[in-house]
Amino acid sequence: MTNKVITHWKGNLQFESDNPNGKTVLMDTSPEHGGHNSGLSPKAMMLSALAGCSGLDVVSILDKMKVKVSDFRVDTYGELTEEHPKYYHSVSVEYHFYGENLDENKIKKAVDLSIEKYCGVMEMFRKFATVKTSIHYHNK
Predict the structure, then answer these.
(1) DSSP 8-state assignment for residue 33
(2) pLDDT along the chain (140 residues), means of 10
(3) Strand order in the sheet with 130-139
(4) What pLDDT shows up at residue 110?
(5) Which of 6, 15, 39, 88 is least surrounded by CB atoms within 10 angstroms?
């Protein structure tokens, strides 16, 4: 399977990328690097892709397990190398679940399935970074 993404320069340091489904996203950089902060930075998009990929898995698995949560958030942190080309050498992924009487065993199973089996972006990150994960339960 091949995905095609077209990225078009919009002026200055802003780019717009499409998606195979037709949606678009803006990329830019900070003013200190000549941009206007009008979009996500490419490296931030990588962390977003990681969180989104795993988050989609987890929500889908929890739905199949009939596990209810009132809210769910994924926090990602990336540590960049000092030298160019700078890349994430270490990444932390924190899964935060909110609700009443959270079924911690099923939630952990859903997260583990995403981390170990389904999330392709997680697997890509493992090729160049140490990835640490943690689960946080916020029972109301």
Answers:
(1) G
(2) 92 94 93 95 96 98 98 98 97 98 97 98 98 96
(3) 71-80, 88-99, 130-139
(4) 98
(5) 6
In the chain, domain spans: 1-40, 42-139
The vertex-77 CA angle with 112 and 94, nearest 5°, equals: 35
Pairing of strands 130-139, 88-99: parallel
pTM score > 0.85 for this model?
Answer: yes
Distances (CA, A) of 91 to 12, 40, 68, 97, 126: 30, 18, 28, 20, 9
C-alpha 122/C-alpha 1 separation (Å) is 18
Architecture of domain 42-139 in this structure: 2-Layer Sandwich (3.30)
